[in-house]
Amino acid sequence: MNEWILAAIVLLVAGLVPVGIAMLTGDVMSAAAAFGLAGPLCSVILLLLAEGFHRQPFVDLAVVLSVVSSGGSLVLARFLEWGA
Questions:
Q1: What is the C-alpha separation between 21 and 44, in angstroms, rounded?
Q2: What is the rounded distance in angstroms from the CA atom of residue 64 to the CA atom of residue 71?
Q3: pLDDT tens digits for the chain (84 residues)?
Q4: Helix, strand, coil percentages for the chain (3-state, nearest 5)
Q5: DSSP class of residue 56?
Q6: Which one of 28, 52, 82, 84 is CB 3.0 to 4.6 Å from 5, fit for a cystine?
């Protein structure tokens, strides 16, 4: 295990787990904000894993995830606005 994989594990535990807890236990607006933060965190974790494992497809997946997650956050915000 090298430093890139260790950084990905630390970011997963220290960053993504609290965001997941906030999505599950918070009110609607807190969950929407946590959902918006989860996409970039997952993208950074995938980039760290790509560097740690020396795998190019993980970089492509991280780029696609960052675009799709930002679009998903906008759709969620629009849905919450429409439902209220």
A1: 19
A2: 11
A3: 899 999 999 999 999 999 999 999 988 888 888 988 999 999 999 999 999 999 988 899 999 998 898 888 888 888 877 765
A4: 90, 0, 10
A5: H
A6: 52
User: Residue 55 has what DSSP assignment?
Assistant: -
pTM above 0.90, yes or no: no
Helix ranges (DSSP H) in 26-55: 28-53
Cα-only R_g, the chain: 14
43 burial class (0-12, 13-18, 19+ CB within 10 angstroms)? buried
Tell me if 73 sits within 8 A of 36, measured CB to CB: yes
To which residue do tokens 């980039």 refer? 47
